[in-house]
Structure formats: structure tokens, C-alpha cells
């Protein structure tokens, strides 16, 4: 597999008092890359280290124990290696990563029910640690979305006011990429090339490399660029739903994770709108010369369709 060239993405300081400058930086990043870093994001390093430690401990458990918490119909719980397949390579079994999904708690709506928890005897701090990270990441994501709204010449509270967070779909996903997997050109890698389905993704990693992006989806051969680790930062990317919402003004970028000869642990946090919210082109992203490119669709319907297609392709 050809080496990816290093890419220097924009870095946005969430503690900056100049909101307009921060919003402008985000707009440039979302138009040109679909990815950027944020610093001074409000998630304490110690909390992230606890999440990574709990994640590592869980993924080291026997497969039988992990499979007892297998992902349910609410998309919560454990997925084994090769459970997800998003590539069309005939010789590929799917992604070699293993994952664990955690949603909101304390809510009666179906989107946020169904979390699966490891034994408190073996993982006494798991639930408290994960829900603390969930709350902090959600607050950070809402701050980023406020800046995104400003970058689109909308009210800073656009997403709040239109009901995007009325029944929020916010999911924490723990990921483990085994170090003993050999990368190949026929799709046998940690995470095959894909774009995220939803609105916004916040990614924290243990510093191990392997994340690549491809800015031109239709280019052949594809040009892959390495997203290197910046200590203390989060990596943020736009998903397909926000690309659709902005009428493709912002881009949802292909990315993948390739093996690098050592285990890699990361923590992804996905923020999506309320499932009943109808996604239609933002007024600031269309005009007579550039009309809406997509019909309106409910957020939940769109995401459910995309998620189901991911697991239908898997061999196990």
C-alpha cells in the first residue's frame, strides 16, 4: 500500500475570543478539507486517558466475554472484527477493527435506550467514565456547531433553535485497531475508505498514526494524505448529512485507517440531529443559480438506511 503524504490541517482554538475569526477558519477547513483540529476544547486530558485505559482493558478481554455484549438493534454495544463492511473488494472480509457503541442515558426515547454495560465487578468505573466523556464531548460538539452556523452566515443558535438537539442522537464509539493486521490493496485494512454518515464527528486518539483522508472522492488513483497527531487536540470532520444540509458547500471527506504495526485506540463521538428533524437545504447555501441538490429527508430515516447498509455487507 502506497504511503500517504503528510497533511497540515487548519487548527481552530475554541478558547478564542474572536468568534468570527474562528468561524472563518472552520469555513475554510470545511470547504477545502472537511477535516480540522480543535484545541482548548474543554475535554480534560485525564478524562480522555481514563476512557482510553477502560477501552484498552475491555478490548483485551476474551472474545466470548465481549460477544456477550454484542451490538443490539439500538446500535449499542460491541462489534467484533469484520462485522462491518463498507468496501466493494471481493476478497475483503470487511474492517478489521473492533468497536463499542455507547449512547445517551436517562432518556425514554428509543434513540437513546439500549446501552449495554460491562460487568461492574470487572469495570467499576466504566459507566461513570464513559458518560462523563459523553457529556463533555457533546458540550464541545455543540460549541463547534455554533461556530459552523456562524460560518454559514446563520444565527449562532441555528442548530439549537431548529430542534436539532431536541432529541439528540449523540454516540460515543470506542475503537481498537489490532497491530498484527497487514495492510493490503484489496481492502483488508483497519477501516476501509468511507465518509461518516451523520452531522459531525469528534475524534480523539492515543497518538498512534494511521488515519488518512482523500479530498477528491472521484480521483483515480486516489491521493491519500496522512492526518498526523497533535497532542491535546481533537480531530473534527463533517459527515454526509451536513454536506447534504449545506448543499455540498461543505465537504464530507473520504477517510480510512491503515495498520501501522502497533495497536491503535481511538474514541469517536458522533453528533446527529433529532431523528424527526427534516433536513433540507439551508437558506444561506442555495439561490437561483445554485438550487438545492437534494430532496428533504428526516435525519433518522437517512441515518438508519446508511447504518443498515453497513452491516448487511459484512460476512459475519
From TrEMBL:
Residues in Fe2OG dioxygenase domain copies: 168-273
Any one Gene Ontology molecular-function term assigned to this protein's record: metal ion binding
Cited InterPro entries: DIOX_N, IPNS-like_FE2OG_OXY, IPNS-like_sf, Oxoglu/Fe-dep_dioxygenase_dom
Signal peptide: none
Key words of the record: Iron, Metal-binding, Oxidoreductase
A Pfam family of this chain: 2OG-FeII_Oxy
UniProt KW Oxidoreductase keyword: yes
PROSITE patterns: FE2OG_OXY
Top-level taxon: Eukaryota
Homology family: Belongs to the iron/ascorbate-dependent oxidoreductase family.
Name assigned to this protein: Fe2OG dioxygenase domain-containing protein
Originating organism: Urochloa decumbens
Amino acid at each position: 500500500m502506497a504511503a500517504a503524504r503528510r497533511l497540515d490541517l487548519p487548527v481552530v482554538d475554541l478558547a478564542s475570543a474572536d468568534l468570527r475569526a474562528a468561524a472563518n477558519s472552520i469555513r475554510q477547513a470545511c470547504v477545502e478539507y472537511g477535516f480540522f483540529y480543535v484545541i482548548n476544547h474543554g475535554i480534560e486530558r485525564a478524562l480522555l486517558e481514563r476512557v482510553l485505559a477502560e477501552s484498552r482493558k475491555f478490548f483485551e478481554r476474551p472474545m466470548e466475554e465481549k460477544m456477550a455484549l454484542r451490538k443490539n438493534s439500538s446500535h449499542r454495544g460491541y462489534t467484533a472484527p469484520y462485522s462491518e463492511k463498507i468496501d466493494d473488494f471481493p476478497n475483503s472480509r470487511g474492517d478489521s477493527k473492533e468497536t463499542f457503541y455507547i449512547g445517551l442515558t436517562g432518556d425514554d426515547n428509543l434513540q437513546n435506550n439500549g446501552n449495554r454495560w460491562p460487568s461492574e465487578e470487572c469495570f467499576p468505573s466504566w459507566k461513570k467514565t464513559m458518560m462523563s466523556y459523553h457529556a463533555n464531548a457533546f458540550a464541545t460538539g455543540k460549541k463547534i456547531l455554533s461556530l459552523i452556523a456562524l460560518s454559514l452566515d446563520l444565527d449562532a443558535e441555528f442548530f439549537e433553535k431548529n430542534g436539532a438537539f431536541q432529541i439528540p442522537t449523540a454516540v460515543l464509539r470506542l475503537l481498537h485497531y489490532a497491530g498484527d493486521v497487514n495492510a493490503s490493496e484489496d481492502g483488508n485494512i483497519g477501516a476501509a475508505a468511507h465518509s461518516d454518515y451523520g452531522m459531525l464527528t469528534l475524534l480523539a486518539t492515543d497518538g498512534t498514526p494511521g488515519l488518512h483522508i482523500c479530498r477528491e472522492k472521484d480521483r483515480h488513483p486516489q491521493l491519500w494524505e496522512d492526518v498526523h497527531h497533535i497532542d491535546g487536540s481533537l480531530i473534527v470532520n463533517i459527515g454526509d448529512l451536513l454536506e447534504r444540509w449545506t448543499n455540498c458547500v461543505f465537504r464530507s471527506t473520504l477517510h480510512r485507517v491503515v495498520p501501522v504495526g502497533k495497536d491503535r485506540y481511538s474514541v469517536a463521538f458522533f453528533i446527529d440531529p433529532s431523528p424527526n428533524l427534516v433536513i433540507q437545504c439551508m437558506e444561506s447555501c442555495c439561490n437561483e443559480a445554485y438550487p438545492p441538490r437534494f430532496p428533504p429527508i428526516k435525519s433518522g430515516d437517512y441515518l438508519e438506511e446508511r447504518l443498515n447498509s453497513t452491516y448487511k455487507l459484512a460476512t459475519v
